[in-house]
């Protein structure tokens, strides 16, 4: 994925991102289910405005340490503002690619968190980087939208097909229990559990949703359409999304919180002996 396009996109979203109440609850639930304990070293990958990092910092206490990484300078500025307001002193933010983590030592963390970031990350690359920086026995925790959701985005991709565009569901890699199990296993983790949840969201205006999809870096191919096709695409999309507003729960977001563990050294020796 084009990191420059991604950074620009999130720089533009930074000011209002942390003010969305469901984002805060989403992050706090991921951390709560992780069962963090005082003194842990935690990496928050694709930290955004630091909502999960702050929740983790409260859980690990003053003896613990949280590092949040993100490619967006705008997000990190907002994260710094929220950190200053929190009064917490055990969080540090670093501008870095969450799918590479250059500059971070092997086995440096007890836990890697990623709240909502898998929507914009190549999962295989991210899991490989997270595996490297986790200590043996360390925990990886990430939240993921269900594949095929939100429904308005699914409608966008379906309409795009009518104009010759094959847009991939960005949650295809990890958006089901089975796909997430396979993805973490390929990276060398032992899958533990996926906890389902549904985030209730109010209806959204079709015009606002269209504008959001048009700047979404997951759908950059749409820019290749002619002005005439773009106008027709927009009209079709807005008409179909407007119909969703008449359906109860049409904008709700099914999600899951996935937990997996890096094998301890004994477990790795046993696995090697079996091969």
Total strands: the figure is: 7
Number of helices: 10
Structural class, judged by helices and strands? Answer: alpha/beta
Q: Spans with pLDDT under 50 lasting ≥5 residues?
A: 269-275
Strand content: 15-25%
**For the residues shown, what is the average pLDDT?**
92
As laid out across the biggest beta sheet, the strand order is 3-2-1-4-5-7-6
- The geometry reads as globular
Q: How big is the Rg?
A: 19 Å
Question: Percent range for helical residues?
Answer: 40-55%
- Encode the helix/strand succession as letters: HHEHEHEEHEHHEHHEH
Head-to-tail CA distance between termini: 34 Å
The biggest sheet amounts to: 7 strands, mixed
Q: How would you describe this structure to a colleague?
A:
By secondary structure, the protein is of the alpha/beta class. It has helices at 3-17, 21-34, 51-60, 73-86, 123-133, 151-161, 177-186, 206-215, 227-244, 265-274, and strands at 41-45, 65-70, 91-95, 109-114, 134-145, 190-199, 253-261. Strand 2 (65-70), helix 4 and strand 3 (91-95) form a beta-alpha-beta unit. Helix 1 (3-17) packs parallel to helix 4 and helix 6 runs antiparallel to helix 9 (227-244). The two termini are 34 Å apart. The model is unreliable at 269-275 (pLDDT under 50).
